[in-house]
Design brief:
homodimer; about 260 residues; Arc Repressor Mutant, subunit A; Tetracycline Repressor, domain 2; 11 helices; about 55% helix; flat; DNA-binding
DNA sequence: TATTACTGGGTACAACGTACCCGATTAAGG
DNA sequence: CCTTAATCGGGTACGTTGTACCCAGTAATA
């Protein structure tokens, strides 16, 4: 296995591990484990944050924890499952997470979008993970529940809520993919060309392409400032327009003085 | 190199290959090449379409063409560059591509979004490629130029045009990532759990999670229809709302009776 | 015809995931 | 307290990848 896909392993083992907090450990014969799953996941995340997803291999994670490589397999069935655990762990709420109850729908959705950017800034390797199957662990469920908080005071169908959450998440992730993935530490090995070098080399080819007349609209662009956008600029624009688009519907669906009742 | 990243190789070699049509071959000593770069790229794309990105390795591509593995290295510096070429090749215009000149801004942007979905449906492996650096070849430039056609009749700044294109592209790609990547042929090897199996196994855990009271909003959802969304549904919703949001600006910027002049 | 650059592709190695194995350890039963 | 058996740490080794290196065959040029 070489690629980095979620849901690659045995779903039963993955689920057991994701929800491990639900079955407390019981006393068993044999030596005390030296590690915990949490330690392994934390080490793998630290490694990914620091050196990129390419550096996350079983040998490196084991070295990070100063244990033998094969020891990891006592705790985690394989690399695929470890990746699932990493994804769910970073999706879990932080210390200072606000409570969506009491926030306006706009605030919640904006918090999701800007929070996603900050999130991908901290964990750019998350943009490289192929979330082939949704990882449904405690952290991911929490994220979804948080997002649903946008509609606490509104009468929208479940379907509509999902559509809106999907759209906001899609905007944030789609744009983060364009702008942030390049900040992730790359697998080194080849000629470690910097961003400047990269463009410098391409420039003459692009120049000739522009002069070829095959890209008339591009050729007419002022290159200077148009491309100097940040992910924040792009998300702000897209989100503002999108929220403007759904605002009438949201305002129409607002319930009168309702609060989330934990019935 | 194990991961699938663009821009991984030598940028000079990549550019030369991307723009190979610009330097015509000249007569040289030595045997005639048995292959062309086009053939190799086409074989790799066919393989990726059919068996997934995981099946694209140098040995398989060579077997597809009935040549020795190392022969490929006569034409392509390495797998990273081959991936760049694949990405640019599938981004090139098809036979029946409409001309954005003469289309309304809405039509162009909608065509980009729905076209993207169809595109990812045909080449789901594109969702797995980490576009760490933009591949600036003939195909990608053409896509950009096409998108800029949305503004032929409008007075918008270059910056604004890029913002809008980025938003539409981000919406389509972000949503495709959620909905379509699961349709890509998976790297087989482990327990090849189907979609149903996957959910069946997770269900009891999710049930317990819902009963735990930690996800009150999720627990209150009607699961039946809310999750049965297609990528088309999600994109239509997001794009409609977004276009609604930028419509005032676009209408305000419309030029009077202007047409694209190939000056 | 001789030269020379280029072609096909076999061999081999390094990095990876992980199957398999063995000895050391420790809770539970007597 | 001692036996038993499950569990732990982790070394060895193999299969799969990308690709460096090499050599022999080939064809345009001089």
């Amino acid at each position: 296995m070489a690629t980095s896909q979620t849901g690659a392993g045995d779903p039963k083992r993955s689920s057991e591990l994701l929800w491990r907090e639900f079955e407390p450990a019981q006393s068993r014969p044999g030596p005390k484990p030296r590690l915990t799953v949490e330690q392994i996941v934390a080490a793998a995340i630290a490694l990914a944050d620091r050196e990129g997803l390419g550096a996350v291999n079983m040998r490196n994670v084991a070295a990070e924890l100063d244990v033998g490589t094969m020891t990891l397999y006592r705790y985690v069935p394989g690399k695929g499952e470890l990746l699932d655990l990493m994804v769910d762990a970073v999706s879990s709420p932080g210390e200072d997470e606000p409570d969506p109850a009491g926030m306006d729908w706009r605030e919640v959705l904006e918090h999701i979008a800007t929070g996603s950017l900050a999130f991908y800034g901290e964990h750019p390797w998350m943009l490289e993970v192929n979330q082939r199957r949704p990882v449904m662990g405690p952290g991911s469920l929490w994220s979804l529940d948080f997002a649903l908080g946008a509609f606490d005071d509104h009468d929208v169908t479940d379907r509509e809520a999902i559509l809106i959450i999907t759209a906001v998440w899609g905007i944030a992730t789609g744009i983060a993919l364009s702008y942030l993935i390049q900040d992730a530490p790359a697998d080194q090995g080849g000629p470690v060309s910097t961003e400047e070098e990269w463009w410098e080399v391409q420039l003459p080819y692009l120049q000739r392409a522009m002069e070829s007349g095959r890209y008339p609209r591009m050729a007419r662009m002022e290159h200077e400032d148009a491309w100097n956008l940040t992910a924040e600029d792009a998300v702000r624009h897209a989100l503002d327009a999108y929220l403007e688009g759904i605002a009438p519907r949201m305002e129409a669906s607002r319930r009168r003085g309702a609060r989330l009742r934990p019935e």
